[in-house]
Amino acid sequence: MKLTRRQALRAGATVAVAGAAIELPLWLEGRGAQAAQLDSTTIPQFVTPLYVLPAMPASAVGAKSDGYVIAAKPFRQQILPKPFPSTPVFGFGAAGHPGSFHAPAHTVEASVNRQVRVVWANQLVNAAGGYVPHILPVDPTLHWANPAGGTAGRDSVPEFTKTPGPYTGPVPLVVHLHGAHVYQDSDGYPEAWYLPHASNIPKGYAVSGSRYAQYAAEAKHRFGVTWGKGMAQYEYGNDQRATALWFHDHSLGMTRLNVRAGLLGMYILRGGGTDLKAGVLPGPAPRRGEKPGTRHYEIPLVIQDPSFSTDGRQYLPSVNTFSPGPYIPTSDIPPIWNELYYGNTITVNGSTWPNLNVEPRRYRFRVLNGCAVRPLTLKVVSNPKASVPAKAALPIWVIGSDGGFLPAPVETPVKSGGEQHGLPVLPSERYDIIVDFTGVKPGTHLYLTNEGAAATVGTTGSIMRFTVVPLKSKDTSVPPQHLKLPGYTPPGAAAKTRRVSFSEQISGFQLTQISKYMCGTVDSDGVNTPLSWDDPVTEKPAYGSTEMWEVWNFSPEGAPAVSHVFHMHLVQFQVVDRRPIGATSGSAPGAWERGPKDSCNAPTGYITRVRAHFDRRGSYVWHCHFLDHEDNAMMRPMQVV
Ligand SMILES: [Cu+2]
């Protein structure tokens, strides 16, 4: 994926304004002081050992199900290498296990067809039990949770008489298990959020979103649980293929902030006929109750791209850096939200640019692009400062996509036009990969790099380092090129074709600015109807049906638009093809996209076609998984009827 001209201009604009922030201009100080931004080139790289995310402790392991109590809490974490200061984060951990709190979270290890129940507790409170405000600037002018609006004004676009500053009240939370096959009560609907059960919730605030009570009642009826204050209990049937899912906050209009703050984690599903037998793939992964000192050959890699202030806090602009204003209420431009913000560092599992000592053998990595908007293109190289596209030192073998194994292993980089193209991983996509270090001399350094759009060689172009150390035990896993993967049968013929759209809404006041992003429908003439989050539901697939969805990504007239990431809840879909709008034929998806998917690139000017089977009734959503877009209206309800 190439950066479009306007994306490049915008990325440049962000950097320019972020750079200017070092001098703390008056408009910034006046709108809530932020310490100067940390120059990411001053951060030493590859000095911190990769944090191998352990398995999340369970609270109850029964005959047929596992129980968890997972809380979201505020704490500090050493993300930058010492002696840089630690960083305030919001992160998950198991209640009663203080050592398990981390951002990103420790991994939930689950088994196919074995139920998992999680109490998700919002404990974003201080030691005295009072709520803590958000650590990142919350724009209160979007269509968002809006707890201050009370029960009448929650989940709406509040009205203002003058441009407001950031919302500093209690923080809503609702957790979505991305890629999971679930009932609606357990999907983490954006309007099913809840505040912490804090001692000082201001009078008149809504303590939960407009769907919370309904889903609490349904959970009680369906699986007999009562949700306490400041929490929800969800049930995951895990009746789907073995794969790597991930959980993250999904609160209406503030997902970008809660995920950046650290409220995300991996959820790995194993076993059954859609998994390989133990020992075939490199392992073990971290497991509950494992022996101390266990060496891991399967490791999750959660990649993010924060920026920092010199005081260690995470940096995110507290003003709309794309627009000089005027803002809401005298224009339609949100004052704090940004249409896109790329951070200037890369973290893996919560540390900037870590190092992993690897033996000369095969490793399985479960990769998640946990960035809000940054596309990644992965490669393993010997020189991280080489100009791109660089020559790969080792291949990355892809064996699985978002929802399970591929039909067959795929070797990347893919060679075309004399160049080596790395593995593209967009926000929210997961890939199951194998890197074979067999035969590499101990002492060798190799690097996982990012050649994606907006990457800067040496900073956001680097992800982590591998240092090869002597072999400690024999590798008995099957080489990736010889793997026989479990079969994947895509959904069958579609009974119906549905046309949906992504587009941008240009400000009515400043014609070069975007005021929000829209989802919509497309009629038989190819005409787009952009719709708001609260317009009546238009996507109503029939229960038990298979549909082809055409995702039309429209450019606004006269300007190239950005790519979007198409994501549907509930289902794993097949990416069928992508064709330019107006063309009669298209191109097949990348070989690495030919397994089950729940998120995929929907490039601008193209129709991306996906096929899905809808086998559960209920209320779900589809949206762009660039979180900065999703939070400003690029999301729509979907009702399986
Ligand atoms: Cu988008």
Automatic annotation (TrEMBL):
Source taxon at top rank: Bacteria
SUPFAM superfamilies to which the protein is assigned, alphabetical: Cupredoxins (SSF49503)
PROSITE patterns, per the entry: MULTICOPPER_OXIDASE2, TAT
Chain ranges of the Plastocyanin-like domain: 533-640
Pfam families: Cu-oxidase_2 (PF07731)
Top-tier EC class: oxidoreductase
MF-aspect GO terms: copper ion binding; oxidoreductase activity
Subunit relationships: Monomer.
Similarity section: Belongs to the multicopper oxidase family.
Designated name of the protein: Multicopper oxidase CueO
